Amino acid sequence: MATQLIHHPYRAPAAFDAVPVGVYKASTVLFPNVAAVRARRWQDKSGYTYGLHGTPTTFTLEERIATLEGGRHCVLAPSGLAAIALVDLALLRAGDEVLLPDNAYGPNKALAAHELAHWGIGFRIYDPMDPADLAAAITPRTRLVWLEAAGSVTLEFPDLPALLAVVRQANAAREVPIVTALDDTWGAGIALRPFELGVDIALQALTKYPSGGADVLMGAVVTRDDALHQTLLMTHMRLGLGVGANDAEAVLRGLPSLPLRYQAQDASARALASWMQDQPRVARVFHPALPDSPGHAAWRRDARAAAALFSVVFDDAVSAAQVDAFCDALRCFRLGYSWAGPMSLCMPYEMPPLRQRPWRHAPHLVRFAVGLEDIEDLRADLAQAMHVLA
Ligand SMILES: *Cc1c(COP(=O)(O)O)cnc(C)c1O
Q1: How far, in Å, is the centroid of ligand 1 from the Cα of 181?
Q2: Where are the N6-(pyridoxal phosphate)lysine residues found in this chain (predicted)?
């Protein structure tokens, strides 16, 4: 019986077809004979060799994310941050430099400042709102330029075509071109067309919009260029960056509703951001669709939508303790990291230590991530918490 429970002769008919993709789980993948072992290739998705190298579930998710971003290839990583690390490790070697915008996702900067620095890879921070500052940061050692739109926490929207033109101009005089990588978690494949703008790599934390459930951690690295994809794929293999089949299935389940969720959260976030602007004690609201938010013109020209995020700084008269009390007084907006899930979230940040360039506003900022609740409940929640600011 023990053997029969493993080597069972029944094979389900192969023609099963349904709306969801099957959840295929495997470490071992079986081969019918040695010739098949020798012939089979996973690199081009023509076959299966080992669970880490792909299953029908992960191949399908990769293809769908590549389509979402307008690319041709995709590799999956166990988190958005792991996807960022994969790009760094695949492309950088000792002596190289990587350039990061001052408002990059914080852990991307921390990885550069710690592990990459330990390995002899330099990093420089540039002002994403000033293409001339990027031009000045490029040296013969520059190998990789990270871009992010909108910026993390502060949501400035950079002039991506101008930044990419700076890199293109530098590349004209170089043998080994600088690679550009856009962290497109905010755009999620909906708001921006990264490859039409001219980036080499578009990365997403699938943790956010594609999952949409606040239940999965995953990242994706999308490319159009075959050679660049092969470089990423080989590093991905050597690092052993697998994702679980159940997690891949959860993201596949989230994808069909992604455009609707993005649109719904965009509408709510815009409405709440502009309402917030009119509240007493509010000094500044950051959301790229607001006309006085940094980079609004670039956003209007290059983006088709905006994500669920807006950030607020209060009057100088509002103390740090009052900002904390405001966050504690909220009921619908819960305290927590991440965003693009069903539940609205908020998080206070002390800005000056997060930025290398001077921060010209009150130091305490609150970032809001709008969920899928009824917008009137969210507005009422923000309104009732205002009393602690008086
Ligand atoms: C959340 C996030 C990441 C990291 O994603 P994890 O899956 O949480 O590691 C990377 N970039 C941006 C812009 C993010 O918002």
Answers
A1: 14
A2: 208
Does some domain include residue 6? no
Atom number of ligand 1 nearest to Cα 79: 7
| 86 sits in which H/E element | helix 80-91
Claim to verify: residue 133 and residue 224 sit in the same structural domain: yes
The tally of domains found in the chain comes to: 2
Q: Are residues 242 and 272 in the same domain?
A: no
* Beta carbons of 58 and 243 less than 8 angstroms apart: yes
Q: Does any domain span residue 27?
A: no
- Asked if residue 217 has its Cβ within 6 Å of ligand 1, the reply is yes
Q: Are residues 309 and 248 in the same domain?
A: no
| Residue 308 near ligand 1, beta carbon < 6 Å | no
Cβ 124 vs Cβ 144: under 8 Å: no
Give residue-wise pLDDT tens across range 308-337: 999 999 999 999 999 999 999 999 999 999
CA-closest residue to ligand 1 atom 11: 105
Same domain, 243 and 264: no
Residue 155: name the closest of 104, 195, 211, 215 by CA. Answer: 104
Q: In ligand 1, which atom is closest to the CA atom of 337? A: 1
Q: Is 358 helix (H, G, I), strand (E, B) or coil?
A: coil
Where the chain has pLDDT below 50, the residues are none
CA distances from residue 129 to 160, 226, 340 in whole angstroms, order as listed: 9, 31, 25
Do 181 and 282 lie in one domain? The reply is: no
CATH number of residue 94's parent domain? 3.40.640.10
What domain range is 347 assigned to?
A: 258-389
Question: What is the pTM for the complete model shown?
Answer: 0.96
Residue 83: CB within 6 Å of ligand 1? Answer: no
Asked whether 80 lines ligand 1 (CB < 6 A), one says yes
